[in-house]
Design brief:
Blueprint: H1 15-18, E1 37-38, H2 50-57, H3 71-81, E2 88-91, H4 93-105, E3 111-115, H5 120-128, E4 132-136, H6 145-150, E5 156-162, H7 174-183, E6 189-193, H8 208-214, E7 218-223, E8 236-240, H9 242-251, H10 259-270, H11 272-294, E9 301-303, E10 310-315, H12 321-330, E11 333-334, E12 336-338, E13 343-350, H13 354-368
Parallel strand pairs: 1-11, 3-4, 3-5, 5-6, 6-7
Antiparallel strand pairs: 2-8, 7-8, 9-10, 10-13, 12-13
Bound molecules: 4'-deoxy-4'-aminopyridoxal-5'-phosphate.
Length: about 375
């Protein structure tokens, strides 16, 4: 390059990308490189449905591209949830769809709104497309509809709400979701992120599908990564008005769900017994673990009420979250510390097997002396 050439010596990052902190995934190794049992990524301790495993193992042709439209999977999802498959799009995990929702409807100068202590990808999704992420205050670690509505400006284009929420496990009932939707201008896209919805009791569902079926501005996202136990296959899906689905279809990767993923998801969807077993195991272990934390309440430990497959434990006494993280690591387990998300004195612990939860509770009891 000539000495006085005004061009930079290397490709220049866009200014909005410079503000992004790369997503830090749940760890599976300790500081010393030791392999840990992973209770840090909200995976299903029961694995996945045997039917999904069989579908993954069956003969396929890796040289061929997958069905770009995931036709059979969308039809199966449509039958399962009574949704027109034309109102469904599949993604490389629901992460892809969250990013596409931001990209499709927000850009430089726009705002993307979400609650404090919500899923880290919302901030990244907003910044990726040059929009400004805006955090509304929480209400005791959960989303606060009044605070979200108060934070809406004429620049707000997209609102993300995880229900149940990650990393807090908190949940808003259908009446609150309806109130949020009613309060939003009709040109604002409301994305209801249902990554953990299958862990709710059937009577608890928040009405997101009904809203997405009749409103023009609601997208519901779901995933096969959590209760279905297929995180490694990367399959998510979204439903909403055809206009919204059309936007996501324009900008998604053309072959964004692998053939094996499509097959496994379809098989997993039909295994209701596995889902019931997973939900029940999660509920009973979560209840038992929360009771163990409550028993340490006089030492400043507190469990945020959770409807998901993890519990956010707050350390409000002498025991520091970091100390607990280290002791849990020494006992062989990885859990999630989220200081970067404003939670330096909290650990998010995935609900594992009874033995795993007993081990973690024993470490915490020991620390409390
Ligand atoms: N939404 C929430 C709230 C999550 O916690 C996660 C996973 N951590 C996702 C979406 C994305 O999951 P996936 O991309 O595996 O579908």
């Amino acid at each position: 390059m000539a000495h006085n050439d005004p061009r930079p010596a290397a490709p220049t990052m866009k200014p909005w990308i410079a503000g992004i902190h790369a997503y830090v995934p749940g760890k599976s190794t300790g500081a010393d490189g030791r392999k840990l049992v992973k209770l840090s990524a909200n995976e299903n301790p029961l694995g996945c449905s045997a039917q999904a495993l069989a579908a993954l193992a069956c003969d396929h042709t890796p040289a061929a591209y997958p069905d770009p439209d995931a036709t059979a999977l969308r039809a199966a999802l449509g039958r399962e949830h009574r949704i027109d498959p034309a109102r469904i799009v599949c993604g490389t995990g629901s992460d892809e769809l969250l990013n596409l929702a931001a990209q499709g409807f927000a850009g430089p100068g726009d705002e993307v709104l979400f609650s404090r202590y919500s899923f880290a990808v919302y901030d990244i999704a907003a910044r990726r497309c040059g929009a400004t992420p805006v955090e509304a205050p929480d209400a005791d670690f959960g989303a606060d509809v009044d605070a979200l509505l108060a934070a809406v400006t004429e620049r707000t284009r997209v609102v993300f709400l995880a229900n149940p929420n990650n990393p807090t496990g908190t949940y808003l009932p259908g009446t609150e979701i309806a109130r949020l939707h009613t309060g939003l201008p009709s040109d604002v896209l409301l994305v209801l992120d249902h990554a953990y919805a299958e862990y709710l009791e059937p009577e608890e569902v928040d009405g997101g599908f009904e809203l997405a079926a009749r409103a023009e501005n609601v997208l519901v996202t779901r995933t096969f990564s959590k209760i279905f136990g297929l995180a490694g296959e990367r399959i998510g899906w979204a439903t909403g008005a055809p206009r919204l689905i059309d936007v996501l279809n324009r900008i998604r990767g053309p072959f964004n769900v692998t053939a094996s993923g499509q097959r496994a998801a379809q098989a997993a969807l039909g295994d209701h017994a596995f889902l019931t077993r997973s939900r029940e195991a999660n509920r009973s272990e979560r209840t038992r673990f929360i009771q163990a934390i409550e028993a340490l309440g006089n030492h400043g430990l507190r469990a945020v009420p959770s409807k998901a497959n993890f519990v956010l434990v707050l350390f409000e006494g002498a025991v520091q979250a970091e100390t607990a993280l280290q002791a849990i690591g020494e006992a062989g387990y990885a859990v999630r510390h989220l200081p970067g998300q404003g939670l330096p004195q909290a650990l998010r612990i995935t609900i594992g097997t009874p033995q795993q939860m007993d081990d973690i509770a024993a470490v915490l009891r020991r620390l409390c002396g």
